[in-house]
Amino acid sequence: VEKSKRKHRHGIYRLYAPIYDRFMAPSFADGHSKMYTPLNLKPGNHVLEVGVGTGVSLKHYPAFVKVEAIDYSEPMLVKARKRIEKGEVEAEINIQQMDAHNLEFKDNQFDHSVVAHALAVVADPDVVLMEMKRVTKSQGLIVIVNHYKEKKGIIGGAWNPFRKRLGLGKHVDFKELVEECGLELISEERVNRIDTHSRMLVCQVP
């Protein structure tokens, strides 16, 4: 069942890839530009970005860090690689097609990890967040940016199945998820001028 869910999402994002940058990415721009600030990045830091998509976020990384950027959708990653080829990014970026439910990295490999507008569209957000926790060093930060509503309500509940089929994700209580995964919530803030429910959660690995 889970494989079929991932296959469905892969198919959806294959369709979105050609139009993502023009029609969808602008609504996420605020979150992408702000999610690196809490990391206080230093020379030599190694960062994991889960759900990099077409790579619209990559230009925000400083030249002195190394980034592993992954996504499940190869058509999206084709566009991300082109950004690097065109010299649109400064940092050392390595892009890989990978399932975030089973990260192919060692324990404690990264100084910090980030995930923007992707944790709600994966099949099992708890599994993905636990994997991010596993590969992030103790005291490292995990930054989550996503559309977030603590209580989905009647309308949210009715809209949920359609959101999932469209690849827009389901309603996830990220505060609850963070707690269940054993992470410490450091801060929460609104990051989108238009979407009042778009939030950035900064968490720390014990």
UniProtKB/TrEMBL annotation:
<feature type="domain" description="Methyltransferase type 11">
    <location>
        <begin position="48"/>
        <end position="144"/>
    </location>
</feature>
<protein>
    <recommendedName>
        <fullName>Methyltransferase type 11 domain-containing protein</fullName>
    </recommendedName>
</protein>
<dbReference type="InterPro" id="IPR029063">
    <property type="entry name" value="SAM-dependent_MTases_sf"/>
</dbReference>
<dbReference type="GO" id="GO:0008757">
    <property type="term" value="F:S-adenosylmethionine-dependent methyltransferase activity"/>
</dbReference>
<dbReference type="InterPro" id="IPR052356">
    <property type="entry name" value="Thiol_S-MT"/>
</dbReference>
<dbReference type="InterPro" id="IPR013216">
    <property type="entry name" value="Methyltransf_11"/>
</dbReference>
<dbReference type="Pfam" id="PF08241">
    <property type="entry name" value="Methyltransf_11"/>
</dbReference>
